[in-house]
Write a structure and sequence with these properties.
Blueprint lengths: L11 E4 L4 E5 L4 E5 L1 E6 L4 H13 L1 H19 L8 E10 L3 E11 L6 H7 L4 H4 L3 H11 L10 E5 L5 E5 L3 E6 L7 E5 L11 H19 L7
Antiparallel strand pairs: 1-9, 2-3, 2-8, 3-6, 4-6, 5-6, 7-8, 9-10
């Protein structure tokens, strides 16, 4: 009789995502809070405030955020009760331990007879992960990217028996998958990216990627490979 070693087949998803994909409350109000625009925090309070103000006023970041907010409005309008779609916030800046983020909030009310899953599906995938126009952008990404993204840039959350739901966009997320069983190892994957537009500066975009990695890598006690 030969002993067979158990193989770990579970994938663990550890997320610190600050971005709400969709929430739906019991009364049928659906809300999305797309993020576009990131700055690193500074230990110097004055420098930190300058970074926050620079993000709030930066034309490229604001243009990106407005574009994605408009895309979310279109997604939510599919099942919205006419006259209830509204932009609650536009290009607001929220501060987290490692980053400042530019966030907008879009909400609508949906009819009781509309399945909650249909509302979630109509807005998927998150517009902040694709850009606009969504369908043609996804076609371009499929041609350019070398493999599937896995959980990264998808969503995670819950559906309640009350009809409520809350899901976040899987950014700032570490995926732990099985490695070679003979070495009892695991594979760690941290997906990172940025919004590339016509007036993007390559160095600035790279710095933003490094900034986005700080929370997860800091929790692991490691630095970004280029530093």
């Amino acid at each position: 009789m030969r002993a067979v070693r158990a193989v770990r087949a579970v994938v663990d998803v550890l997320s610190t995502s600050p971005e709400r994909y969709l929430s739906i409350d019991v009364a049928g109000t659906v809300r999305s809070e797309p993020i576009k625009g990131t700055r690193a925090r500074s230990a110097d309070p004055q420098a930190d405030e300058r970074l926050r103000q620079e993000l709030a006023a930066h034309p490229k970041d604001r243009a990106e955020n407005v574009m994605i907010t408009d895309l979310v409005r279109n997604d939510l309008s599919i099942h919205a009760v006419p006259g209830t779609l509204r932009t609650e916030r536009l290009c607001a800046v929220e501060s987290y331990p490692t980053v400042h983020q530019m966030v907008s909030t879009v909400s609508a009310r949906i009819s009781p007879e509309v399945p909650r899953a249909d509302v979630v599906a109509a807005a998927f995938p998150p517009g902040s992960m694709t850009g606009a126009p969504k369908i043609s952008t996804m076609d371009i990404l499929q041609r350019l990217e070398t493999g599937p993204r896995g959980p990264y840039s998808g969503v995670a959350g819950y559906f309640s028996t009350t009809g409520a739901a809350d899901l976040s966009v899987l950014i700032r997320t570490l995926v732990i998958a099985p490695g070679r069983p003979e070495e009892d190892e695991a594979l760690l994957h941290l997906g990172l990216g940025g919004a590339i537009v016509a007036d993007s500066d390559p160095a600035d975009e790279w710095d933003e990627v490094v900034t986005k990695s700080a929370g997860v890598l800091g929790a692991l006690g490691v630095e970004f490979p280029s530093r």
